[in-house]
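Ticket #4471: structure export looks truncated?
Reporter: QA, pipeline team
Priority: medium

Steps to reproduce: submit the single chain below to the structure queue and open the exported record.
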Amino acid sequence: MNAVDLAFTPALEQARLVRTGEVSPLDLVTLYLERIDRLNPQLGCYFTVMAEQALADAQAKTEYLATHPETLPPFFGVPLSVKDLNPVAGVPCSYGVRAARDRIAEKDDGIIPKLRGAGFILLGKTATSQLGSLPYTEPPGFPPARNPWNLDFTPGGSSGGAAAALAAGLCAISQGSDGGGSLRGPAFCCGLVGLKPSRGRISFAPVGERMHGLATNGPLGRTVADTAALLDTMAGYTTGDPYWLPNPEPSFLALSRQPVSPLRVALLTALPPLGTAHPTCQQAVLDTAHHLEALGHQVESVDPPDLSSLIEPFTIAWQCVVAEANVPWIVLERMNRWLLWRGWRTGSGAYLRAASQLQRVARRIVEHFHDYDLVLLPTYLHPTIALGEWRTLGSAQTLKNIIGWIAPCPPFNASGQPAIAIPTGFDDRNLPIGVQLVGRPGADATVLAVAAQLEQVQPWAHWRPQIAAH
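Actual output as written to the record:
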């Protein structure tokens, strides 16, 4: 296997190659660090490269492998990236804020010990939009993250660096987070699998989650199997969590590989008053519906739920999180500064009313799809935007444009349902497009299993952007 093929080998397969001695952890880390050194200046997908730590960990794991081949965790020696919203002790964590780019984290985020315990080697911290608040990754003071399929376009956000790194073969698998599409959107933009798990599936310990359950950490993978296996690693209750779900038996990986009984699937291509999907995104949904029908599922076009009361409370929650971050306004970019000022004007009563309204909307969403096992709809309403496409617009118009792009994602952050973005092909600019599958509350295994069925029909793991194919 040549170096490029190895760089694009799925994470589970890399773990198998390590266990069988065909490659070593040191081989993998050396390969990825070389690619990062060569391609990251063009892509801007890593804020911090943990080269020294990664090499030391890889050397130790390579030596351990020689004497303990039978006691290896599932991802032993596999290199992974971590989003720069999740602190890693001893490593800078900037949250996309230039003034904090050299601030060293004192403690690990709660998922970091889980990732290390699974055997992963941490390669570095991937780029995020400032405070993780925007669906493109262009924070001032950092190079913009670029889409490996076309450097003039965004890889999405806020997990844009995670997606760009994985799509370009600069890691084997990526950790990200999703508070309004921040995993699913970058997966859509970069031709990957992005899962927003059910609310309570992954703990936010020890810090806690500040968005009343809208946000969650999650996996970004090259394949459904990788995504399911990373979910197995990250999932689980931590003492004192405000909400939680039990882990399944068997694992999500095992469940994603089991046969799927015929399901009822609701199909949507419009979400009034938020918008109607671009014809390219509509066609991706319709093509996927045909595949699902061929697999034995029953697909029915349905009327969309009433989302007219979602925008205001979701926006209030969003702007209050920016304000609560307690970052001086002078260091914020224009859009976040505007959100901060709006957040300052939001009283505690307005915020609590917004949180209650989001719960009411969530109940209506879940109830609307009660008779269906899955919902099939676009990931985003139109294809990927160019870098800086909205830079000259006023903040209010930018907000309107953001809502009109990411509209299919936030409803399911509100409802807490599991939602997976999978790729389906390319638009006329050779940029990836895809669709989203949403499951019943807690039914992460179902969305993974059906996504795996679709992956078998139309595989995508072999896709490689030209910039990374050498």
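Status: closed, not a bug. The export was complete when the record was re-opened. Leaving a note from the reviewer for reference: Residues 3-468 form a domain with the Amidase signature (AS) enzymes fold (CATH 3.90.1300.10).
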